[in-house]
Amino acid sequence: MRIIRQWHSAERREIWSGTEGGVIKAWPWDVIAKSLSLTPEEKYMASCLVENAYIDLRNYVTVGTMFSLPTTDVKHMLADHCRAKVWSLTSMTFALWDARTRELLKVFGMDGQVESARLEPLVMPEQFIEEEIKVKPTKKEKNQGSVTFLKKSWNALIGAGGAVRRVATKGTFVEDNRRTETVAQAMDGAIWSGCTDGSIIMWDGNGNWLKEFSYHNSSVQCIKALGGKVWVGYASGTVQVMDVEGNPLGGWTGHSCPVIQMAIGGSYIFTLAHHGGIRGWPLTSPGPLDDILRTELAKRELSYTRVENIKMLVGTWNVAQEKASPESLWSWLGTASSDVGLVVVGLQEVEMGAGVLAMAAAKESVGLEGSANGQWWIDNIGKALDEGISFHRVGSRQLAGLLIAAWARTDLKPHIGDVDAAAVPCGFGRAIGNKGGVGLKMRVYDRRICFVNNHFAAHLENVTRRNADFDHIYRTMNFNKSHGSAASDTSVQLHKAVNANGNQPDEDRPELAEADMVVFLGDFNYRLYGITYDEARDMVSQRSFDWLRERDQLRAEMKAGNVFQGMREGFIRFPPTYKFQRHQPGLAGYDSGEKKRIPAWCDRIVYRDSRSETIRECSLVCPVVAAITSYEACMDVTDSDHKPVNCTFSVDLARVNELIRRQEYGKIIESNEKLHCLLQESHHVPDTIISTNNIILENEETVVLRITNNCGSKKSAFEILCEGQSTSKQDGTKTDFIARASFGLPHWLEV
């Protein structure tokens, strides 16, 4: 329920509430106030009275009016005290009310267009998709020939696309990326609404669209205004400052997760993050005060820097639609996980087939994911890791046959947060998940680490397509929640430069590029080139891996800078992991069938950390430094035509000791003379003259109230509020003073 307190006329005060289904109610404040002062025995009867005392404002919507009250849930309400109006907002619709008469004045959309038709109720997407797609390949269909099966598969995928489009047109999913998330009023009276696509819309007090602008792709979560400034908090953790015209003044990374609320107290604006953290920022920021604090804190960096070390196990396996035995899972993960704190597993081909892909594509389009097979793997890997006692699952994501999941050891779990997931399909026109990537992003000791499980295009000749698959995943993978960087600069914001258009210069950088460490794992499908099947088998039997590595497509492409740019891989000392005959142990198990696929290192793990050519040591500037301690394949596992691969990392993470940093911050504030001067100046109120004479209005006449700001360099903001009113009688006495709080000015008074 969204509730807003609002006072009406001199005789009536009310609280307005917005609830599910677009219902708006007005509650008499006097009834509520009386119930607060009752004894516990009397409160039950009073609560019944209050419960039935409301007025349903839908009754005040005139029959036959051109406006229809939205039937979707009320998300936000705003009181415009100066104009005596109330705004009620759904995700995509605005309603404007007269607070005095309770009249519905206007209903309009996010584009400013007046709504005249009632919104249609939502459809249930999952049920609709199930009815639209009923395609499942059978063994009989496969036996009819590959051409017929491929044709049926293609038809199934086209059918899935049609089902998705029909669901989208029947529901509201087309506009799902643009909803109203917050609303606030600036000091100049303009109403600001923030949207999930990062755009901000300005309205006048009568609900007329003024202008729209956008400086971030991240969702707007909250807006706060004071004087000539407006602060905007984003889902990325970014805080941005603008003037009342919407021009950007500066911005900084406030938190590592969404900023969900802001409040102003004293000379600070405080931001509340999704994980519960609260930080305060000077109202004058960005400015000279920030520059001094940043410089002074940098000099003391060593005193509040701590380096943590964790061990990570990363594993990848193309399971070829099979299910592993407990022994295979233990061989792959159980022994290696004994001394690690974090385990991340990526699987490919958990399930395939036209029906599976079609259903997965349809579900993805309406925000659904996962399957029974995927859950089986998660449950059984959890058993191998002693989940619930030694390890706890912290996140997972499935896209058709791709699955990624992560588990953290009990003592490390409290230091892991902000776990988000993402998926990028690469198959059939970048729409189907038979190829693609699924990722997890998490904050470990306040450092962002991303893991991406991939399955690239198959076949020896498709090197360019594999490179393109990586490029597409790297550039387009966007995680569900936060899109910002870890807030290592916690006490002083590092405001970013703003160009002439008001856009952040690095706004178009891929989200994976912002992470402190990225690990790519999966069936990359790069093969051995310039070699025959028999030559490869001979070299494998002789363990001549150096000779084979020279013919590895991935190594050649990375060296040429065509793929995995800036990343590195551990030294390969294990045999090629593809292709094997199932349940055939040893190196004799390589495929000897009709196709005789040349053995290859398809299953790989590559990574990058924070190191650069000039900085190699772990510090706040280079916060994550990783080293591979083992990189191997489990050649004794025979459940699939691929061998599982695992890689263990030793990772150093530099973090800020917040307690010590706050202490250093306090010492700087106390000892720096220049800061003292700036802080005193920020508290200074310009010399202002206000006429204090009583204003007596007996006739319809104009009286001038002059407010003068004698400061020639700074603006002064003010509000005129009516605290209450009383009436003078002819005998000189006055009626009782009736408080009007912040309702607005009386009908007969205009300023």
Automatic annotation (TrEMBL):
Keyword Ubl conjugation assigned: yes
InterPro entries with a match to the protein in the record: Beta-prop_IP5PC_F (IPR056454), Endo/exonu/phosph_ase_sf (IPR036691), Ig-like_IP5PC_F (IPR056455), IP5 (IPR046985), IPPc (IPR000300), WD40/YVTN_repeat-like_dom_sf (IPR015943), WD40_repeat_dom_sf (IPR036322)
CDD domains recorded: INPP5c (cd09074)
Superkingdom, natural source: Eukaryota
Annotated ranges, domain Inositol polyphosphate-related phosphatase: 308-657
Keywords: Hydrolase, Isopeptide bond, Magnesium, Metal-binding, Repeat, Ubl conjugation
GO BP terms in the entry: phosphatidylinositol dephosphorylation; pollen germination
Pfam families linked to this entry: Beta-prop_IP5PC_F, Exo_endo_phos2, Ig-like_IP5PC_F
GO molecular function per UniProt: metal ion binding; phosphatidylinositol-4,5-bisphosphate 5-phosphatase activity
Cofactor(s) it depends on: Mg(2+)
Keyword Transcription regulation on entry: no
Family statement drawn from the similarity comment of this UniProt entry: Belongs to the inositol polyphosphate 5-phosphatase family.
Cross-referenced PANTHER family: INOSITOL 5-PHOSPHATASE, TYPE II INOSITOL 1,4,5-TRISPHOSPHATE 5-PHOSPHATASE
Protein name: Inositol polyphosphate-related phosphatase domain-containing protein
